[in-house]
Each structure stands twice: as structure tokens, then as C-alpha cells.
Amino acid sequence: MRIASAKGFPPPTGEDRSRSDQVGAARLGEQQPHADRPAAPTRSPLRSDHPPRTGEGEDSLDLAHIDTWVFDLDDTLYPPEQGVMALVQGRINAFMVDAVGLPADEARVLQKQFLNEHGTTLAGLMANYAVDADKFLREVHDVPLDSLEPSPRMADALARLPGRRFVLTNGARCHASRVMERIGITDLFDGVFAIEDMDLTPKPAPSTFRRFVQRFGIDPHRAVFFEDTPRNLAPAKAMGMTTVLIGEGRGHELGDWIDATAPDLLSFLEPLPLRDAA
User: Fold this and answer.
1) Cβ atoms < 10 Å from Cβ of 88
2) Contact in structure between 84 and 10 (CB atoms under 8 Å)
3) Each residue of 254-270: pLDDT tens digit?
4) Per-residue burial over 244-254, b = 16 or more CB atoms within 10 Å of its CB, e = otherwise
5) Residues 66 and 159 both lie in one domain
6) 0.85 exceeded by the pTM?
7) Number of separate domains in the chain
8) Which of 181, 211, 221, 236 has the fewest CB atoms inside 10 Å of its own CB, making it the most exposed?
9) CATH number for the domain including 132?
10) d(CA 144, CA 247)
11) Residue 21 belongs to what domain range?
12) Phi and psi of 245, rounded to 5°?
């Protein structure tokens, strides 16, 4: 499978926020059982004769069958340059110092270790320390959103999409609500699946994706998932979803579980050719 990549755009920055299964039982490459593929779907308003392209001279991605659009939140629905996750990282660093009783530089090293070994800081803390998960989520997401710009362009691009739209985020519900309200896209979504809905078992745990599609009655073979963390796309692809990496992946491994890439979400959504409603 070729990965179509967009060119001419600067890569985003920001820390990998994806999380692994807290019990560490699932491997990303493991194929998950699913129902048989459905019969040929009805055509969506996307013109299959002119599918969206993600790079000059590269393979195109046909989304004519898609009726469900799934989006990561942070650094996907808004540009990472707006700095929200840098503020969250600062709060995480402060929480780590208090929780583990180490100097800031040593706590930061341990936090990176937790991120690498457990997928998230919270998962690492819960595996090794007695921490209040609700307090962690509340404190680390309590950041000002002054740098986050409302985006009428994003609202327009999302409103054009045929079918249902969902947010699938490892962040807290309160954080997702604040961010979506600030961007101006809250009313455009049919549901939000946050870390509390995952029972604190975050992406990329395959069980979390299964829980998500069951909650909202989603057929994975007719869904597309947009995400800025490469490994979070692997279980989605294993279920049958079409996958789009937003950004360059910040140096993390890319593989054939990624169907396409785009430098940012708007550059992918705005050119989508839509069939006339008439």
C-alpha cells in the first residue's frame, strides 16, 4: 500500500500524546476480529470519479463509500502551532513533580519514560503510583485557550461532509468541550468519545476502538479517521477504517496502516469534491 503524502507544507510540532492499553495486552499490529464486510454501500455525495488527492503525482484516496468521519482533537482539529498542547505539557510536568517527589528535570525524564512505556503519562503514573486520575485530568487540561483561534473555515469544511462526525480523543471531556466551543464547531458533531468514555484505556488500545464503534453504531469499513499520532491509526486500520495522518508524524514510525497524509486537516477537507445535493 502506498502512502500518499502532501508536499510543500511545514511539519507540525508537539509531543506525542497517544496512549497504549494500560494492561499492555494488545499489540498494534494485531488484527482484531470484526463482522464480515457489508454489501456494497450506497454512494455518498463524494464523487468517486474525482477522489481527493493528498499529493502531486501520488495515489488518490477514494472516499465515496464514507458515511462516518472521525477526528482526533488536539493538534488535528486545530494547528499545533497554536500552542495548546505546550500549555498542557507544562501542567503535566508540574503534576509529575508533585506526584513523584523528584526535581523537575528528573521528573521530566520519568514522564518521558512513562510516555514511551505506557503510552501516556497518566497510564504510567497509575501503574506505579497512587494518583487521582480525575484530579490529573482536571489539572492538566485547565489551561487558557487564548492562543486557540476560532475557525470559520474549519466549521465550513466540516459542515460540508456527508454523514456523521465524531471526536475520538485521549483528552478529558471538559477539555474537548472547551476546545470545540472555542473553535466554533461544537454543533457540527454527533458525539465525543473522551478518555472517561474509554475507562482510562486510551488510544491506541484496540479495545477502545471497539468500544467507540459499538457506542455509536459505526461500521468501520465506512469510516475515515484523522489523527496526528501515527500509531493511533494502526488499530483503526485493523478494524477496516480508512486512515489519514495529519502532519508528518513527528519522527515516529509510519507504515502501511496509514492510507494518506496531509500537512493539516483543512488542506485535506477543503478540496474534497462533493456531489451536488440536487
Assistant:
1) 20
2) no
3) 999 999 999 999 999 99
4) bbbbbbbeeeb
5) yes
6) no
7) 2
8) 181
9) 1.10.150
10) 24
11) 1-32+41-82+149-278
12) -85, 125
